[in-house]
Amino acid sequence: MASGEEDGAVEEKESNNKKRTKGAIATTWLTFYNIAMTAGWLVLGVAMMRFYLQKGTHKGLYKSIARTLKFFQTFALLEVGHCATGLVRTSVIVTGVQVSSRIFMVWFITHSIRQVQNQESLILFLVAWTVTEITRYSFYTFSLLKHLPYFIKWARYNLFIIMYPLGVIGELMTIYAALPYVRKSGMYSLRLPNKYNVSFDYYYFLIIVMLSYIPLFPQLFLHMLRQRRRVLHGEVIVEKDE
Ligand SMILES: CCCCCCCCCCCCC[C@@H](O)CC(=O)SCCNC(=O)CCNC(=O)[C@H](O)C(C)(C)COP(=O)(O)OP(=O)(O)OC[C@H]1O[C@@H](n2cnc3c(N)ncnc32)[C@H](O)[C@@H]1OP(=O)(O)O
């Protein structure tokens, strides 16, 4: 009997040790990830400011930061993995929609359609993304290090009120500006007849993407408002299972 109890205690101790090791590895990885992402978006922000101060125009700005932008925004795909594996307590759906819409903007609009790269609307969402991500990743980093300055917490849960709509307007205007070029070139489209017997029109797909902002964006925005109430005002919020 005594030996059974001892065995149980040993097993519990081992399981606790394993949990602690797993927790330490996860925290180390997340700290590294968040520091890298904060640095990446800071580099982007500084590069954009320097470009504008030196050239006095937004023309050519995208080209000068394209590689860094594509790298760090694509790296953010890991965030979907973080949620899916339970490494962070964030909804996979919310993160998935957020990250996929950005990846789509970066690769299937700005990278693919040269003609929109000098649009003013690009600057709108680039500034909104950059301000948001510097704040968000530094918020996560300082939280993990357990030294979170209040102004970063405040910025994380207030700036989105302006930055989110600004970013969305910039994204929608850029997709809209891309439409004529997409229609003219027939890019990424598949016309009938073809051996697969399927047709796909990227032009109409883009219109559907634009329309999908109508139901999706308010949900993301409301989610952030709920997070804001929870974190800044300590409200207990019961989220539906997402
Ligand atoms: C194929 C075609 C697809 C087309 C789709 C079309 C869709 C169209 C609609 C989409 C529109 C999006 C437009 C968008 O791109 C525009 C912009 O982004 S403009 C810039 C402004 N943006 C924002 O402000 C974004 C705000 N949104 C968010 O931050 C997101 O909701 C999200 C990134 C998902 C964060 O979600 P959540 O609010 O759940 O996270 P929290 O930060 O509160 O964190 C929750 C807890 O998890 C911990 N956590 C999360 N991540 C980390 C991490 N990396 N490291 C450490 N810890 C992390 C966090 O600390 C919280 O823990 P706790 O609960 O203990 O406090």
UniProtKB/TrEMBL annotation:
<keyword id="KW-0472">Membrane</keyword>
<dbReference type="GO" id="GO:0005789">
    <property type="term" value="C:endoplasmic reticulum membrane"/>
</dbReference>
<dbReference type="GO" id="GO:0030497">
    <property type="term" value="P:fatty acid elongation"/>
</dbReference>
<keyword id="KW-0276">Fatty acid metabolism</keyword>
<protein>
    <recommendedName>
        <fullName>Very-long-chain (3R)-3-hydroxyacyl-CoA dehydratase</fullName>
        <ecNumber>4.2.1.134</ecNumber>
    </recommendedName>
</protein>
<keyword id="KW-0444">Lipid biosynthesis</keyword>
<keyword id="KW-0443">Lipid metabolism</keyword>
<feature type="transmembrane region" description="Helical">
    <location>
        <begin position="157"/>
        <end position="182"/>
    </location>
</feature>
<dbReference type="Pfam" id="PF04387">
    <property type="entry name" value="PTPLA"/>
</dbReference>
<feature type="transmembrane region" description="Helical">
    <location>
        <begin position="202"/>
        <end position="222"/>
    </location>
</feature>
<dbReference type="GO" id="GO:0030148">
    <property type="term" value="P:sphingolipid biosynthetic process"/>
</dbReference>
<keyword id="KW-0256">Endoplasmic reticulum</keyword>
<feature type="transmembrane region" description="Helical">
    <location>
        <begin position="32"/>
        <end position="53"/>
    </location>
</feature>
<keyword id="KW-0275">Fatty acid biosynthesis</keyword>
<dbReference type="InterPro" id="IPR007482">
    <property type="entry name" value="Tyr_Pase-like_PTPLA"/>
</dbReference>
<dbReference type="GO" id="GO:0042761">
    <property type="term" value="P:very long-chain fatty acid biosynthetic process"/>
</dbReference>
<comment type="pathway">
    <text>Lipid metabolism; fatty acid biosynthesis.</text>
</comment>
<comment type="similarity">
    <text>Belongs to the very long-chain fatty acids dehydratase HACD family.</text>
</comment>
<keyword id="KW-0456">Lyase</keyword>
<dbReference type="GO" id="GO:0102158">
    <property type="term" value="F:very-long-chain (3R)-3-hydroxyacyl-CoA dehydratase activity"/>
</dbReference>
<keyword id="KW-0812">Transmembrane</keyword>
<keyword id="KW-1133">Transmembrane helix</keyword>
<comment type="function">
    <text>Catalyzes the third of the four reactions of the long-chain fatty acids elongation cycle. This endoplasmic reticulum-bound enzymatic process, allows the addition of two carbons to the chain of long- and very long-chain fatty acids/VLCFAs per cycle. This enzyme catalyzes the dehydration of the 3-hydroxyacyl-CoA intermediate into trans-2,3-enoyl-CoA, within each cycle of fatty acid elongation. Thereby, it participates to the production of VLCFAs of different chain lengths that are involved in multiple biological processes as precursors of membrane lipids and lipid mediators.</text>
</comment>
